[in-house]
Queue: 3 jobs
Job 1
Amino acid sequence: MHILLIEDDLDLGQALLQALQLNGFTVQWLRSAAATPPVPDADEVAAVLLDLTLPDGQGMVLLRRWRRAGMALPVIVITARSALQDRIDGLDGGADDYVLKPFHVPELLSRLHALLRRSARQTHGEWVLGGLTIAPRRHEAWLEGAALALSPREFRLLLELAREPGTVIAKNVLAQRLEPLGDALDAATLEVHVSNLRKKIGAERIATVRGVGYRLQS
């Protein structure tokens, strides 16, 4: 897979270039806004790693332009801007993930792999998992053809479990994903949402792995 890396810092850019290549990616590393393509080609690029502060412009300007042009490639923003409003603006502006500097490269790689897995699934309008059908972009789901009445948080929980069916998702990971811009849900609240979702899709569809987390049975 080919990654477009847009980062002006020499040391960080070199470290990311080497780490990505060691993990089997090919990489195009650009260090300025002027060097970037008008719109990255989805047939050539799998994902973009985008620094927000470039020597000749702002990464968010690039990202908004790409999204307005219809680019659907996954984008991870990498930045030192940690304020809540900056994170909100980044996500609202089209970022799929927002990683704060300084960060550990293995964590960034893990986020990239997860995002690529999700992107591969989201290229299809609907996800079909046994008797469950989920339309992520429309925020709709069906069980055996019947529409499910899910609260926004129940739908988000179902979506997070369905991204990696058959894989155990740790409780703390789910708790944070359900509140990506704030404090993670407490354990009791998460369990309530899991219980409510089980009532609607069938308790047997969500397995509990004691002491670890939950797994969607497809």
Note: The helical segments are 10-22, 59-68, 84-92, 105-122, 152-163, 171-177, 187-201.
Job 2
Amino acid sequence: MRILLIEDDRKAARLLARGLQEEGFVVDVVHTAEEGDEEAFVVAYDLIVLDWMLPGKDGLTLCRDLRQRGCKTPVLMLTARDSLSDRVAGLNTGADDYLTKPFAFDELLARVRALLRRSELVRPVVLSLADLSLDPLSQRVLRGGMVLDLTHKEFAILQILLRHAGEVVSRSRLAEQVWKDDLIAIDNLIDVHISNLRRKVDAPPAAPLIQTVRGRGFRLAPADDGAGTGTGAAAHA
């Protein structure tokens, strides 16, 4: 099971993540609502543990935004606010459960397990374009009915491109979402991974889908959708 922990208190986040990892969960940690929004959009999580009081956009607003975009991942809200009106506000915004600080780790763990049992996590919608499909949960990618063997980075890049099909995705966005803080020689890394991904996804006789928009980034679209947009030349080489 994979959990996204969104908590601005770095020490608390580190302790919670370590405890959950010791229980066998895979835990990704971010410290702002904006980072959490990006992660929840790209990765299929089984549960989101969300602190209410975050810098900038708060957890309540993030939860509302996720629900409005159709995110069905269970959300456990953490907060020092313990009034009835606060609990009601959290639940009405889309949180599935509410835990007030301070709390015992055993109680957090019990609530996490209860949410996972209760939800059985609605299977994410399979992303598709033409004869290309990607299942975020099973991480299975098909092109023309054939299974593609992608690396972790290739899968992450393709998932971002599919979620923004028809749009130009910048190099900086790929760098931030796929490589996080490991940005050494990132342009060369992106080029290498795009080249490898294109060789697998666009292997003949399949029609090419991955387009390079010079000076702007990359786009996933049928070849006839990449021309005449006025957004720069698209290339497949």
Note: Residues 227-237 have pLDDT under 50 and may be disordered.
Job 3
Amino acid sequence: MIRSISFLGLIILLNSCISSKCIFIEDPQNNENENPYNYDNKIYLSNKEYFYTYQIVKGNDTLKYKIDNDSVFSLIKYDSKDDKAIDLLSIKTLKAKGPIFQDHPDYSQTEIILSHLNSDKKTITSELTGVIENSTNVWLHPFRMNAFQILQFSPFPYVKPNESKKYKWNLEIGEHWKELKDITWKGKLNLKCVYENTLKDKKIILPSGIVNTIETRSNCSSKNWESFFNIVFQ
């Protein structure tokens, strides 16, 4: 089975990886109330929320998704008007120590809420997860619920801006992963991901002006799976 995924984001930023020491984690800052890993963030600042549009391309169709009353999602035309349709995504950084940190004091990530919103910015569904951000690397849990569950099998957004060689990250997924409703397998699935900074000075034109970025390309493979990911990092 071959799956291809491409993703473009201006600023996109493990527990599974922390044990293999492939991602650098900064020393925590002693702070009684605020998450101890927020202090050196340049992108995911405390209590900030970022909004994104998205498209799902399937064949010749451009789609988005909606959630029905029974919590089952379905794909609809991108220009469809529906109160249950997901029109926006958002990433919000928690300032205080959130539920994950309170339950796991050794948690070493900035906590974020990934929300799926309708056109009125009303949250339809959301998940709590984390991001690792410092001057050495940025690593992010992607959206993985409902129509985005396939991203669990793609290279997670991971940028090492000063790295000149290919770098790797591996993920092992057990067969019972609650966010996945339509994809199943037996045993453990081992994903091997390879990243490479392909363009060090990629220019992007924004309403605010021209910004210089780094383009990182990656691929992820297992015994019967292959996926691809493009990241543009400011």
Note: The radius of gyration is 18 Å.
